[in-house]
């Protein structure tokens, strides 16, 4: 500072701070308490976030195990993040498609079993009658012709199944070609 006459004056204040170590100790304790509090808060937040993210994935995993056991009525209820919701939707569509395929497979097996059972029953009946000796010799040729027709029917059914199987394996692919429909 300056006096009115232009001379400069300096004032010095000397103060002794004696409780400095106590203040530092108090600050250390406060920082440690705040650090522990934030660490606990961060732990709770991490657990909550992991449950928020992991719970839908655990539900999807549980449902997919049910689907693998053949329960096609299972539903996937993923929620939260967009990816989890999309995965749930895709798995729901997959479960429905697998259910339809399973019903079609069961229907096919039932129909094929029925279609095979009829000729086999006829063949068995005619052959048993011929072996029992209850059929006169002049009728045996007629019965053998019936057995032959039923055997050919079974051969046709088997051939149809093999064709269906080869088409399912995509071994026989259709090829496009241009042709004159009038000529056909």
Question: How would you characterize this protein structure?
Answer:
There is one protein chain. The chain is mainly α. 72% of the residues lie in helices and 0% in strands. The protein is built from three helices and no strands. Helix 1 (20-68) runs parallel beside helix 2 (82-132). It starts with 19 loop residues before the first helix and ends in a 16-residue tail after the last helix. The model has no long low-confidence stretch (mean pLDDT 83).
**Strand runs, count:** 0
The main sheet comes to: none
Estimate the helix proportion, in percent.
over 70%
Arithmetic mean of pLDDT: 83
Portion in strands = under 5%
General shape: rod-shaped
Q: Compute the CA-based radius of gyration.
A: 44 Å
Q: How far do the termini sit from each other?
A: 117 Å
| Run of helices and strands | HHH
**Can you count the helices?**
3
- Low-pLDDT segments: none
Instruction: Output the structural class.
Output: mainly alpha
Structure summarized in a few sentences:
The longest helix is centred in the middle third of the chain and has 51 residues, at 82-132. By secondary structure, the chain is mainly alpha-helical. It is built from 3 helices and no strands.
Describe the protein's topology.
Layout: H1 20-68, H2 82-132, H3 137-168
Helix pairs in contact: 1-2, 2-3
List keywords for this structure.
mainly alpha; 184 residues
